[in-house]
């Protein structure tokens, strides 16, 4: 009996030591795993700790008796949670890909054969072919990649983009009628957002007013907009003035604030903004008259005030490309939204206008191309791009030419971009 008791005690001590040994081994393995995770994923763990700390802080502050809501100035930049990366690489030191150099050579030869002034950005298969300034646009101390231009009527594309985001947020629809916002407009119960985007609403206005403030201009628009009840396409900017006013009414923000919060900050646009006489350091290329003399800027504020939603933005070619490609990549809505806003079949032959752009199909086998154009204070921007924005010609001119040389050149630039690539002898 005594021997049996001793054997039992010995076995028990042995099991205790074995258990302790397994505990030590398990602890060492756990410590090794923790050290490995910290070494391999330091950023993720740091982020996790910060998130946990933030949630605790938020929870604590939300239960505080003295906690009060604070207002936020919507004009201040939003905090970005991540950096947006454009589809196309616009780095200044990026060289033209070897396969695209023949296109660059052709474009440079074509430009040299014309008397043009401005900055041209050509993109082929999401790669920069060239980004050059020429003519009077080279008489500035900054590079082509830093140059901005007034984009005139192409701003209507941006206004349509903001309308699209409101539709995606279910705050609006293409079938919403104008009387929901401004019943004082004649026939507003029959005018839809869609008809305003396509300028088939019948609305028009005479721009004789010289407003001193934006509010004065908006009041004038509401009192003086008339309706022709024609339901046919007529280019009439007041449609987009009213769309901008709808944006302000729905968001309780200024048009400029909503654009900055929705587009400019999320896409990290550094060369995009709204012009005023007081603004400085925007690298705005000065405009020129057709006779070659530099155009004097007007001292009249009304010229810019009444361009609400229609033509008061300065933009660089690069920033324009970034916005269009982001749209096509679904940054501002799904494919259905894009189709309804920009790709929906039109009713005016093979060319029609909607959402700030003209849509064109050369023949049944060709893919769709978009083009936009504007004229304002000596600036004449023209853009052409395909339906996924992988091929783009963005030509911003600082000299309006009444003989249509700028628009003709832009079309021929796009023809060169779309032509088969051929190498001259010696290129490989």
UniProtKB/TrEMBL annotation:
Q: Which UniProt keywords apply?
A: Membrane, Transmembrane, Transmembrane helix
Q: Where do the TM regions start and end?
A: 20-41
Write down what this protein is called.
Answer: Beta-lactamase-related domain-containing protein
Q: Where is the composition biased (Polar residues)?
A: 76-87
InterPro entries noted in UniProt? AmpC-like, Beta-lactam-related, Beta-lactam/transpept-like
Q: Which residues form the signal peptide?
A: none
Q: Which residue ranges does the record annotate as region Disordered?
A: 52-87
Question: Record keywords: Membrane included?
Answer: yes
Q: What is the top-level taxon of the source organism?
A: Bacteria
State if Iron-sulfur is listed as a keyword.
no
Q: Which residues form the Beta-lactamase-related domain?
A: 108-407
Q: Where is the composition biased (Low complexity)?
A: 54-64
